Amino acid sequence: MGLLDALFRSNEILGIAEETLEFALESSEATHPDEYMGFLRGTEADRLGLDRDGLVITDILVVPGTESNSVSATVKTSQIPNDVKALGSIHSHPNGVIRPSSADLETFGRGSVHVIIGAPYRWTDWKAFDSQGQPTNLHVLDVDLPDTEEFFDFTQADIDEELRG
Question: Which residue of the set 18, 26, 29, 35 is catalytic?
Answer without folding.
Answer: 35
